Amino acid sequence: MSAELPEYAERVLDVAELIPPGRVMTYGDIAEWLGEGGPRQVGRVMALYGGAAPWWRVVRADGALLPGHELRALEHYRAEATPLRDAPRAARDTDGHLPRLDIRRARWDGGGGAHV
DNA sequence: AGCTTGACCGACC
DNA sequence: TGGTCGGCCAAGC
């Protein structure tokens, strides 16, 4: 039983749980869908309490992978068949230039814009 | 009360 | 494609 979670944080995490596998939402999207707060507030919540939620489905608007957890996130994306953007062919056979998220295809609208 | 920082975003160049 | 700038909102010092 946890009541130590701020209401706002609880709502943010709730939305994060709603995101279907293979799809993502941006911090700004969640804030907008939620109708309050901003991207930074959502980001703070994820940073503090995101461990108990599918954090890899909450991404930045530019599709960059979460710094420090790139490989972790990438594994999830591969497992969920989340749309990824192909790495540049110019250096395809070299080291770890990780692919980026195809934010345009992976972006989830939040259930068609319908609240529960 | 003021300044800095942060899992951000969009516009510009 | 990538770097910079201003705007944004809450928390910390």
Describe the protein's architecture and organization:
The chain is mostly helical and 116 residues long. The relative contact order is 0.18. It has a two-stranded parallel sheet. α1 (7-18) crosses α3 and α2 (27-34) crosses α3. It contains five helices and four strands, in the order αβααβαββα. The chain binds a DNA duplex (13 and 13 nucleotides) through α2, α3 and β2.
Separate helix tally: 5
Query: What's the count of strands?
Result: 4
Mean pLDDT metric: 87
| C-alpha-based Rg, rounded | 15 Å
**SSE run:** HEHHEHEEH
Low-confidence regions: 89-94
How far apart lie the N and C ends? 24 Å
Classify the secondary structure makeup into a structural class.
mainly alpha
Q: Which sequence of strands runs across the widest sheet? A: 1-2
Shape: globular
* Strand residue percentage: 5-15%
Report on the biggest sheet: 2 strands, parallel
Q: Share of helix among residues?
A: 25-40%
Topology:
Blueprint: H1 7-18, E1 25-26, H2 27-34, H3 39-49, E2 58-59, H4 70-80, E3 84-85, E4 100-101, H5 103-106
Parallel strand pairs: 1-2
Antiparallel strand pairs: 3-4
Helix pairs in contact: 1-3, 2-3
This protein binds a DNA duplex (13 and 13 nucleotides) through α2, α3 and β2.
